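Is nicotinamide-adenine-dinucleotide placement plausible here? Inputs below.
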Amino acid sequence: MFEYAPAPESRSVVEIASSYGLFIDGSFDGGKDGNVFKTVNPATEEVLAEVTSAGSEDVDRAVAAARRAFGPWSALPGGERAKYLFRIARIIQERSRELAVLESLDNGKPIKESRDVDLPLVAAHFFYYAGWADKLAYAGFGPDPQPLGVAAQVIPWNFPLLMLAWKVAPALATGNTVVLKPAETTPLSALFFADVCRQAELPAGVVNIVTGAGDTGAYLVAHPDVDKVAFTGSTEVGRAIARTVSGTGKRLTLELGGKAANIVFDDAPIDQAVEGIVNGIFFNQGHVCCAGSRLLVQESIADELLASLKRRMATLRVGDPLDKNTDIGAINSAAQLARIKELSEIGSEEGAERWSPECSLPDRGFWFAPTIFTGVTQAHRIAREEIFGPVLSVLTFRTPDEAVAKANNTPYGLSAGIWTEKGSRILAVADQLRAGVVWANTFNKFDPASPFGGYKESGYGREGGRHGLEAYLA
Ligand code: NAD
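Reply from A.M.:
I modeled the complex. Tokens:
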């Protein structure tokens, strides 16, 4: 194996303030009740900034600002709204180095992912929905589709800026205004985005950012003057939100958890499949709702594939997220690390065989070595529950029917992968999988033009593509 010299991206490309207020009605201000929380760099445990915790009065102000902005914003011709979205997309491209470093500092993800995946996709989403803004009459939702009003949007910490883009871009293109709450462990890129909105001269109140924890989110989604709720996060919180919203007339989309099967048939190209398995579960430290966290491999090639996978895993570089050679960065929080450790211990206790390559982890910060469990059965908790970390459960199958049955044997249904040389098998198997996205001979590929969303406990509604417009139109 090559020895790599350190290749650190400069942290000084982005300025982080010591404290941040809330972005309401076009400007930053402190919260009314003076509560703050700290956001830390998970790779070092260093405090990055103090952030305002929005109370009920603050959320009221944000919703009121969005309501005032809604009339004029929705009355603009689509082509005018598009200009703002294009401007935002361009500014994001111009400032993408700053944003990538900020995202890696606050989230722990490797810079090569924030730089080469998150940021290009964020800009692409704004470009894509900018393109729709003046074509809504041709999108298949009637000749004159109308916006809903004020959208309350609550997002998780795994792709902070990308989840913001998925929510804000279609909402604005369709003429809605938004109040967005980022996750409490990763608020900084959303606050940076507020500055991008100012730079783009977006009218005040069209986008409002309120920071805080679950109670801020709960208050926001329950607010009586909100017309639409869009949530991405855990199934448990999604259920609570569905209860809050039910019977209110608010529109709701939920993007929740997953436990995807990545199915490898005996005719698959092994080396490519190994790359897809690695990408499927170790990309973004496995903090991916659609991660390929259950590997289903045909029994006749299981030994060969696992040997190959272990060789590949031994080359993964775990460490400093800002090093351009890093493959696996830090786990986002102490709480998430504790959950990954707990479920992994349960995996061992239940009799699955645990393996990780040798790798030295930094002393400070939150780290977990890439891990696989073999000898896993459907009865194991690690085969059923979302771990949301770099942990792969390996199961085997003998026939395509068995693969389909095992793949669908989950309360979730967000994504799946199929690896085979036969096009006919791809079509036949994909047709039977109860998953919102099915990748064939690839994994974790995203495009703003393709819809994304779940079945069953993975949620409902679609984001992305033409389908993504529907969630914001009456
Ligand atoms: P989480 O549900 O704990 O938190 C998500 C967001 O909801 C955060 O902003 C949080 O502050 C807020 N929140 C917490 N309690 C709330 C409440 N009662 N009311 C309103 N808001 C509340 O999830 P997480 O741990 O941040 O994220 C991980 C989960 O997100 C995983 O299950 C993952 O699969 C899922 N996820 C899904 C998708 C998707 O598109 N389907 C994408 C990314 C993540």
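Short version: Residues 154-158, 181, 183-184, 213-214, 217-218, 221, 232-234, 237, 240-241, 255-258, 289, 386, 388, 414, 454, 459 surround nicotinamide-adenine-dinucleotide (CB under 6 Å).
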